[in-house]
Each structure stands twice: as C-alpha cells, then as structure tokens.
Amino acid sequence: MKRIMSNVISLFVVVIVLFLIIPLPTFMLDFLLIVNIGLSILILMITMNIAEPLEFSIFPSLLLVTTLFRLGLNVSTTRWILSNGGNAGTVIKAFGELITSGNVVIGVVIFLIIVLVQFIVITKGAERVSEVAARFTLDAMPGKQMAIDADLSSGLINEQEAKVRRYKIQKEADFYGAMDGATKIVKGDAIMSLLITIINFVGGVIIGMVSGGGDFNTVLNTYSIATIGDGLVSQLPALMISTATGMIVTRAVSDGSLNTDVIKQFKAQPRAIIVTGVILLFLAAIPNTPHLALLAGGAVLIVAGYVIGRQMKPQTAMELAAAESAAAPTPEEAAPSEQDYFKDINNVYSLLAVEPIEMEFGYSLIPMVDESHGGKLISRVVIFRRQFAQDMGFVIPSIRMHDAASLGTNQYVIRIKGEEVARGEILVDYYLALEPAHPLGEVDGIETIEPAYGIPSRWILPENKEIAEIYGYSVIDPLSVMLTHLSETIKKHVHELLTRAETMQLVENLKHTAPELVEETVPNVVSYANLEKILRNLLREGVSIKDLGTIIETAADAMGQGANVDSATEQVRAALSRTITHRFCENGQLRVVTLDAEVEKKIIASITRNEQGVFLAIGPDLMQQIISQLAEHMKKFNELSQSPILLVSQVIRGYFSRMISQFYPNITVLAFNEISNDVQIQSLGNITLEAPAPARAERKAMVSS
Questions:
Q1: What whole-number distance in Å separates Cα of residue 384 and Cα of residue 479?
Q2: Per DSSP, what are the bridge partners of residue 648?
C-alpha cells in the first residue's frame, strides 16, 4: 500500500492518458469535472499565498499534468456530446443553462468573452512575463554569484550558507526556464479548448440533424447548451491556472504572500487613499453622474485613510524617537593638545610604529565606522576575521581605522605596513548596481567601477533599487562595497602580514594538539625562518595553512632530505592536495588550461640556477607565445565567471607561477599531483608552440601552389 501511495501521481498520469481512449460513465465524469475545478482553485490559492516562486517549484510539472487532465476530460465530454444527443452529465448541463439563462445568443457571447479574456489577456500576458523573467534570471546569475562570493569573502556568510544560496540561484534559473516553456503549454491549451468547442458545436449540430434529433432550433438549442457548458467547465479551470501562472512569475520582488503585501503596502499610503476619496466626491458634484455611488465610495475611502493614518502615527513617532536617541551625541573627554603630547620624547617613538593594516576614511564615511553612531564596519570586520581564520588558518591582525583630512569626503585608503595598496570612493546615500552582461534596461545613475573586482557599475538612488534588480543588476549597499574591497585586498597581501612572531604563535597553538610533532621538528629540522617562508609561499597562492601539522611534517621530511624552501613548498602542496582541490574545484569539476608537452620541455630546459637561487630564463619569443595564447583562454574563464586555472607539471609549477603572476596576478597555477583523483578535469584550451613567421609563410605558399 505504501508503495502504491508513493507512486500515486505516476498512476494518475497514466489514468489521464487512458481518458483519451476509454469512455467514462457520466457520473464519474461529473465527479472528475468537479475535481478539476477544485484543483485549479487550490493551485491559484497556493500561488497567492507563497512568498517566493521556489516555494511552489513543482508548478511547471503540475501545469503539464493539469493541462493533460483537462484535455482528457474534454475528449471524454466530447465523446458523450456527439454520441448521446448532447447529454454529457449534469455538471455540463448545469453550467450551460447557467450561462445561457434561456437565451443561447447571450450565452455564446458571454462564453466568447471568457475565452478571449483567457487567450488574449491572461495567457498572452503570463507568457510574456515568463519570457522576461527567464531572461532576467539567466542574465543576473553571474552578478548574483559574485555577490555571494563578496558576502563570503567579507565573512557575512559561511561556506555552507554560500552553497545554499548558490543552489537557490541554480534552482531559480531552472524554475524560470521551465516556466518559460510551461507557458507555451497554457497557450496551446487555450487554443485547443477553443477548437474542441467549435468541434462540439458544429459536429453536434450535424449529427443531430442527420440522426433526426428534432428540428433545427431544437438541435441548435440542445448542442449550444452542451457546448457552452463543456467549454465553460474547461475554460474556468484553465483561466484560474493561467492566472496562477502569471501570479507565480510576478512574485520576484515580494516579501510575503500576496494578501500580506497588498494590505501592508496599501496601508502604508493613507494620504493617497484620502486624496482618492476627495476626487470621488468632486466627481459626485458633476451633473448626470451616479451621485450616490460616488459619495458612498468617496466617504468610505476618506474614513479609511483617516483611520489608517491615525494608526500609523504612534509607530512613526517611535521610529523618530529611536533615530534621535541613536543620533544624540555622547560627552567625550577632552584630549590633550598635540604639542603637549609630543613634549615627552617617549611619545615620539610611537610615530615610528608601522601598522600591519590601516584604513583611512574621508569625512562622509566616518558614520559607517563609528559604532556610537550605528556604524557596522567594525563588527563586519570581526565576522570576516573569524571566517578567514576558519578558511585559511591565519588570524588577520587588528586593523587601525581613522579619518584623514587629506582624503576626499567620500574616499578611503587601505595601507599595508604603512604603504597604500588600494583606494576607493563610495557614495553613502546610494547603492552600487553591478552591470550584467545583457541588462534588460538602463538605470539612471553615476557610472563607476566596482573597486574590488573592476566591474562596470553605477551608483543609483535607493528608490531605483527594485527596478535595477528587475533589469538584472546586482545591487550592493555601500558598506558591503567597502568591506568587499578591504577583504579582497587583505587576501591579495595576506602573505606580507605573516611575521616571525605570528609563525611562532601558530606553532605554539599547534603544541596543544600535536606536542610531539612540534618538539621533534621545530626548530630542530625546520627553522622558524624556513617555516615562515613556506607558509608565505602557500598564502601567496591562496592555499590554506590551517592543516599546520601536515605542513610541518611534510616540510620536515623534505628538508631532512636536503630540499630547499621552494622544493619543500611543492611537496607540502602535494600533501595538501585535498585542501587545494576543495579550494579551486566546483561541483567535482576543474576547468583548466594546460601546457603542450613541447612547451613544458622548453620551460624545463630554461630552468637556470645561480647563487641567488633557481629561476626561469625563457626566451622572449616563447614568452610572447605563452602570454598571447593565455590571454585568449582567459576570455573563456571570464564567460564562465570563474577564476582562471593553469595546469602544469610539478617540476615547473613554482617557477612558472612566479613568472606568470607578473602578467596575470589573478591566475592560479596548479600541478597534476595537487588534484584529487575523484575530480573531473575539463580542459578549456591548450598552449602550444606556434611556428615562426617565416615558416608559416612558407607553409602558406606551399598550400597556395
């Protein structure tokens, strides 16, 4: 029984198909027609009470099943109408007599109006909305993915939450793509219902006249009522399903159910309600207008607007009081003068200190930092520091934040060890809209470049936020823009922040879990200086050092065999293959660009060693070929919204990575032994040796001859 219940929908679909072949008795047909109407009402109610479309993600499939169900019933009713003298059950007869009310012409006109409303207004509108929603969702996917990455980088969400949001974006794309196709089913259903109605009427009249069912008026009246009843029974559910289709694809910018949103947003505008009531009263003063109806309507709206406005006043007063309380200045202690402070020579030495990370702000940005005025930057940085420590195994040092009179009012500067490494400018009262590849429309705003990723963007007013999202823009608040820029800058320079003292602190922390390993290896086999260099090499290329035990154990084995720091780093990377794979792999797949065997041979032959160390001495021709081909392959990664990855052999990985980073700092170079065996590698291109220009010209001449 349990197995049958789990497959009840599959069995139902099979039964629906059988409706097209097996004739149904009229009492069962009456019951199924009522079920069809009830099911369509249920679907419409569900679509009106959901907050977002994915809460009813089965709707596209359900739309196909209900359409097939309705067409199966249409075929069954048509069989009875044509074979039983227009008698197809009590439901169809009741609906036919209800709509005709004794006058067939009126019934036909009303039925045609219902059909045209269903076909031209509801179905066509839902189809257009679905097309636009599907296109907008697909175009907005890269921007939404980037916004998730920004939130993950800034520490607002963890990796699990990021996966959930990425999955939701994928589900949205699949849902709206399915809805775009499902609306074509609705349109076909409307056309088919109209054709079946015509067939019932024309075929019934012909059969009635041929079989001697009475005079022409009697036949016409009988089959008109049956046809109109059958068409109405099928068109009413179709109309409700079409309405539900349009309803579900227009729920993109809603926060709750349709009932909640309508009541909430109408109640937020009491003045508009009162003005509408006053206008109706003025219309009532015009001669020959329905005075009583206009007066009643105007009075009701004015009273309703007044009552709603009275209810909103206490809430507005509380919000204003809370805002004034938060903005009230707090007394501060008087600071000593600068001249008196530096009279003490010991205080002068404080000027020699260099902050690991420093952030300076213009005057307008101070409220975003000052916690006494509701600033949230510091709390967001704390969240980012915690998330970064969990992901990378490194604790970011404290960030010194202060204002700077030399900056513009909307500018900020990020410094690493006293030197400026990044600068940006944000508008506090605006939102930043990241421009998609194919926007559906243009939003008014101030054109700019997003500081962290260099994406073309524009600063827009808050009232344009919703329309920008509809057009496919990814909208980010100013605080998130600045925090994302800070987090990406720290990730880029994190290896510079690792000091000897921090290395020793990490080792001390490891003693709590692996005291024997630390006692045996550090600093006896691996010195603190060499361990610091290895950790810096890993952080420079975005590899987590959280598994410090494996790093120290592998480095000790390598250096015990006489390996240098670079060789030890490569062996450590191989030991961290799972960590590296998890860092750069997406959904079990790794998209890469590879090097041709001949290219690798030439690179290996160019490895040179001197007293300064080992480096690559690649000729300019080979270098130019590699750089130019790599530039072409980089475009493929940009289209996929993925960081570029170059896959090479372990022998040249470290040297080639340092060389190529001078031209493409954002590229990741991995070795084959750093990839887990369960990962599928997909090559997007291969860098090969190109023949010299004279040789190419000679080959071209031979081909021409």
A1: 13
A2: 671
CA dihedral (7, 11, 12, 17) positive or negative: positive
Of residues 90, 95, 98, 104, the one with CA closest to residue 221? 104
**Nearest C-alpha neighbor of 222 from the set 198, 204, 197, 235:** 204
Cβ(122)–Cβ(243) below 8 Å:
yes
pLDDT at 387 over 80: yes
Whether the pLDDT of residue 38 is over 80: the answer is yes
| HSE, side-chain direction, 13 A CA sphere, residue 88 | 34
For 176, the token pair is 């709206």
The pLDDT tens digits of the residues spanning 152-163 come to 766 677 777 878
- Average pLDDT along the chain: 80
Q: What is the pTM of this model?
A: 0.56
CA 610 to chain centre: 51
Rounded Cα distance between 397 and 389, Å, is 11
Greatest Cα pair distance, the chain, in angstroms, is 122
pLDDT attached to residue 48? 78
Question: What pLDDT band is residue 536 in, cutting at 50, 70 and 90?
Answer: very high
CB 457, CB 504: distance < 8 Å: no
Helices (H), 585-692: 597-605, 620-639, 650-660
Render 419-473 in DSSP notation, one character per residue.
EEEEEEE--TTSEEEE--SS-SS----EEEE-TTT--EEEEE-GGGHHHHHHTTP
Q: Report d(CA 597, CA 688) in Å as an integer.
A: 8
| Antiparallel, parallel or unpaired: β 474-476 and 589-595 | unpaired
pLDDT digits (tens, 9 = 90+) for 178-194: 777 766 777 777 777 77
